[in-house]
Amino acid sequence: MSFEIKEKDLLGRIGKLKTKSGTIETPLLFPVINPSVQPVPPQRLKDVFGFEAVITNAYILKKRYQNKPVEEGLHKFLNFNGATMTDSGAYQILVYGDVEYSQKEIVAYEENIGTDIATILDIPTGWRVTKEQAEVTVAETHKRAKEFFNLKTREDILWVGPVQGGKHLDLVAASAKEMGSLPFNIHALGSPTEVMENYRYDVLAEMILTAKKGIPIERPLHLFGAGHPTMFAIAVALGCDLFDSAAYALYAREGRYMTENGTWRIQEMDYFPCTCPRCATETPKTLMIKPAKDREIFLAEHNLWVCIAELKRIKQSIRDGRLWEHVEMRAHTHPALLSALKRIKNHKDFLEMYSPSIKSSGFFYFDHEGLARPEITHYQNRLLTRYTPPTTAKTLLLLPQTRNKPFHKAPEMKKIRQLLRILGPELADKVHIAVFCAPFGVVPFELDEVYPLSQHEAVLPLDLETIGHVADQTIEYIKQMPYSSVTMLNNPKVWSNYVESAARKACTEKGIAFDAVEANEISSRQLIANLKAALLKQLSN
Amino acid sequence: MSFEIKEKDLLGRIGKLKTKSGTIETPLLFPVINPSVQPVPPQRLKDVFGFEAVITNAYILKKRYQNKPVEEGLHKFLNFNGATMTDSGAYQILVYGDVEYSQKEIVAYEENIGTDIATILDIPTGWRVTKEQAEVTVAETHKRAKEFFNLKTREDILWVGPVQGGKHLDLVAASAKEMGSLPFNIHALGSPTEVMENYRYDVLAEMILTAKKGIPIERPLHLFGAGHPTMFAIAVALGCDLFDSAAYALYAREGRYMTENGTWRIQEMDYFPCTCPRCATETPKTLMIKPAKDREIFLAEHNLWVCIAELKRIKQSIRDGRLWEHVEMRAHTHPALLSALKRIKNHKDFLEMYSPSIKSSGFFYFDHEGLARPEITHYQNRLLTRYTPPTTAKTLLLLPQTRNKPFHKAPEMKKIRQLLRILGPELADKVHIAVFCAPFGVVPFELDEVYPLSQHEAVLPLDLETIGHVADQTIEYIKQMPYSSVTMLNNPKVWSNYVESAARKACTEKGIAFDAVEANEISSRQLIANLKAALLKQLSN
Fold first, then answer.
1. How far apart are CA B417 and CA A182, in angstroms?
2. Is A278 in CB contact (< 8 Å) with chain B?
3. Which of A116, B227, B416, B485 could form a disulfide with B395 if both were Cys (CB 3.0 to 4.6 A apart)?
4. Which of A258, A259, A275 to mutate to probe the B interface, most B CBs <10 Å?
5. A398 DSSP β-pair partners
């Protein structure tokens, strides 16, 4: 195995990828090296910035430099002593329709220059293509992939098998399955460039997740052309391990300043919102009077520092089990990213399957987007498939969440304990207490210390979708569990009547009794009396 | 005037504050200097980090160093050639109940050491105090403030008048009004430390906004004790100009690593998610083997870099008119910050009054929290108070928003132009077209290029509160405008039936005709025919 997974969160992971030039840590960004116009020398990328690997284009090398990289070897040619990856010219096929080399020639060239990671010459699908055209690219890519295994002669290079299909998700699924069945070391999602240029990150999210479901989960996935730090977090969360960036240099040439939150033109800047070693000693004013070439190098280096910082934030988040929080924050830098985040709920079971659901730390719940979190899916599935209330339970006493957790230790619960004492042990045994809470739905009292039922913090006031979700979960719970009645304490300030109506409806449909007591603006004494009356009525039926 | 406002966004501003030791730019963070344990020398704060001002505590100076700072002068004593601010011992009153110096002594000391900005000896309210106790602190602070103006002898020092009242907002309002009526140069919100320690940023937001409404808007506002970069953005947006941080040093002593997104203990870190000059050349592993003192200095300096970067991000956002976006992103780093953001809608008219509503760039709309944006309030107020439809308009044709903007130029509108041609000029004149869209509500076609009606991007799918808001705005619009009927084209995929039901209800209540046509899954030809039939029916009534 060339790829070893060290830490996981969501579909993101910190991994070690073994190449013949050393082991590199993922998630990883390959800066794109263009030997003819390279603003930052490759070896400086490693020594100063810490990039362990770079990518360059074998097709362009062959066309421009012919045999020189073969004679010198790619590492010496680039003057880079880390790991190298080569692309194959497939992107040029997308742009120009065809290239003048066959796959056989490209594969031989990649082997001969001794790259560490290499790409077959696939046929990118592109963005504005019909399903029929897309089918052709998928079929041709698969054909070339199979051919490739007869062409390759070296065993020490890691080969990348791109998944095509574009926005046609059934084709992406088929392509992923086919490519995944071949013995590639790495997969890539083919040409998402145009999808990203059109800011259709929602479509991109579906493409990535569809590809992930088809390829073996233990192989790394490269997202070609994704070089902007705003989208690293969501791409990693969806299972991308490798990225490449020509953007750091292209943006620099155009005077554009990247940040993890967006892009500026330097003319628009009064401040550098950054502390990288370049920005710490420069202002936009001092930069603007420097020669154009110096500005370009400044920007290229700044752009690289920003990419590195974001990857480190992502890695630390994975290690902390807080990648979701990081993604959610970053998704609020561009509407297209938040649209993408909203798609994840369509795949929440897949996410839950491969993501750790027990963690060392709690989590923050902001908004209904968070309902796709694996911790929530995990709890809800288990509750409905594995849980049964205590056998003595006749009536369900459903209480609203408290600010303090665990719920059963919250100060508000003093009243409830008092109520149970008043009822006496025999009746109290027939009352089963559960809390309805965001984002989990119904939490039986005896489970409320199980992770993460007390180890989370939800934003108040709740958003309507979240309230609706809790209402839906309450319906499910009541329908499935063998109570003969339900008594609910509602807190309309937080929940309005959504959960109460839902619970009432579920009881009516099930043909069991339902009663609700309001918590607002009454004394503890009155509250206990009301709850007691309701419970006694239920239990006497 | 010692304070000049250069740029504004929301209630935040970039300002120039003139002190006798030079002009400093706000929003500004004063690092707290503790002369007896100071991890970073004051002059280094200026020369390397660019801090133009520092703060120290006059009460502690007087107690520990007595006359030395008087003899040397504060600047020489601290060895700092920028601007200095002094606190007065009020925080020590809060913690210890009282201090051994009178206000008279403290004020004289502050004048004698020659600080540039000084604080009166007010009485902080604190957090867990009854309304009666709080009233005493407010009254006593006001009494001392009035006394102070008889004590001061120098005219070249900027004096800070703190606003007290704690969480009791009516007291805060009264205190702000009283303190604001006195000739202070700067105000401060007294002792929010405990509010922040309890993560009640929602309460803090209300306190800040209440104080802002009482004090003269043109004076800077200092938020005492707010030293964590996660909350600078929202505090600036609410109108705070000055901050002080002892946290950078206190956190460093406790091994805590600040970021703009939260805090880590260094033992928990595998990566430094930062590119500051310190973090660029260090890893948690290499740091952990260094001597404790070096670690502390490393952390203090890193913490300061992080604070600087966040302030620069905030300033650039103000300059770009994108402070709301920055705040919204940052609010997704902690539930308490998002809870605070949710409070702003209670003050949206105040925000609109002092915030520019015309900007050079468009904006991003993520979620219903954004409904508090001044651009939206501004448009809606003007539409309902100043707009009337063309006089020929009989029926309102209400169309759903398009992805492309301006709406009237979107490809989907080709059908509508065709429809108008079919109707002929006479009938077409009686049809007034408007679009219902998030987040603005109803936008008449002829206004759709007015800023920011085409210069925004909203996340799809929309959240329920936003849909509800558009429905409410549609009701308001229909009720107020003199149409004799409404025809609506609904797109249930985006809007479900919320806006349609709202429009129907408004028409019924008003006693005018309403008809709706569904846009989904029908041909253009069919759509035009359906709309034509509906309009002809309306116009023939």
1. 54
2. no
3. B485
4. A275
5. A434, A488
